[in-house]
Amino acid sequence: MDQLYACNVLLPSGWAKNVQLSLKEGKIAAIKSDVPPEQAVGERHDVLLPAMPNLHSHAFQRAMAGLTETRGAGVDSFWSWRALMYRFALSMTPDQMEAIAAQLYMEMLEAGFGRVGEFHYLHHDKDGNHYSNVAEMSERIAAAANDTGIALTLIPVFYAHSGFGAQPPGEGQRRFISSTEGFARLTEAAASSIACLPNSRIGIAPHSLRAATLDEIRAILPVANGGPIHVHVAEQTKEVEDCVSFCGARPIEYLLANFSVDDTWCLIHATHMTPEETVAVAKAGAVAGLCPITEANLGDGIFPATDFLAAGGSFGIGSDSNVLIAVSDELRQLEYSQRLAHRSRNVIAWPNRSTGQTLYDVAVKGGNKALAAASNVAPGEPADLVSYNLHRPWSKDHAILDHIIFAGAPKPDCVWVHGVKQVTGGRHHHRERIERRFRTALEALMSL
Q1: Is 161 assigned a catalytic role?
Q2: Known catalytic membership, residue 320
Q3: Cys-Cys crosslink for 3: which of 41, 72, 247, 404, Cβ 3.0 to 4.6 Å?
Q4: What is the pLDDT of residues 342-399, one digit of tens each?
Q5: Of 147, 320, 384, 413, catalytic
Q6: Per-position DSSP letters for 6-29, written without gaps between them
Q7: Catalytic residue among 45, 161, 269, 428
Q8: pTM for this entry
């Protein structure tokens, strides 16, 4: 039985002092607070937190990070960014996909993420035909997760059309496209590919209302079998306008009118909601999957967080396009977007509560819900933990997360997933090997 001791631990009930944790078979076996330091056993740390779930990732896009920040001749937008994304998607081999995903997952662990929800739609060969192993790319995602030690919720994506009204897919989308029957087979094979990974989960995702018709979504929902259901929705104003032009309704309105959205659903972005839609999504119990850095990078807009939380909504965070991998930066970007929108301070915080702790608590709970996971420092839960060694006077009070998120505190020191330490001193144990393989893959892609 492994032993950890920390001066400050964030439990579901709040902060506890001088805590002794016992880990057994990948889980937290016991927790005891107020243990005098002289009686401590095992490794010692200043701060222990539950690892943050990352509920939305497109792993292959990490390869293009930093390559879309040069302005074109006209006005740049999500849609001009997407053109380069398609170029990378069409070029990537399975080996390159695995190398890029491993680099990304290593960086996620070093940032304090313990689980990733991989919204995976790069399914097929370069010409759009199926690999002989229909789950080839899913297996590469699973291999990258296994290599790095991150927990995985694999979310195969159904993608069939280029726009509302079942428009034919574009040439740049050929590697994404499936029939409903083919998607069921792919998801079954993907589930088999992660069966050997500890604490893994499977979900499904209709990519978006523009990429899947209502009938197609109805056809694939049984494939979820009670697992998570994720969907991109209302990210861009153009998407809203196109949806209204197609059916006379806004995307959120259209979704809620046609499906029994509940707490198994995660609505990715949901940036552009009316006040009525905001309340309806919150009451349905769906998680808002927010990706603040990507949403800012792509110029999506600002999520109505205050109204959503006031209506009882829950959110989690993801890194989406993976342009930057940082828990603190995602949470800070979310809070600062609200401050700019409302011209106020400490917006996402309960009265008389730490903003940092509110952000962290809500995001952990929402991420767990969206990924069918359980990242909590509690007996019987997986030992998915992050340590910080702050070594400053304020590390002894309950402003710890405010300093971590807003004041440039040190990055995570150690990270455990399912009781196995994957990061020590801020570095993944296999960083050199994984990074070397990533560089080789990236050099090949950049030469095309």
Answers
A1: no
A2: yes
A3: 41
A4: 999 999 998 889 999 999 999 999 999 999 999 999 999 999 999 999 866 655 567 8
A5: 320
A6: EEEEEETTEEEEEEEEEEETTEEE
A7: 269
A8: 0.96
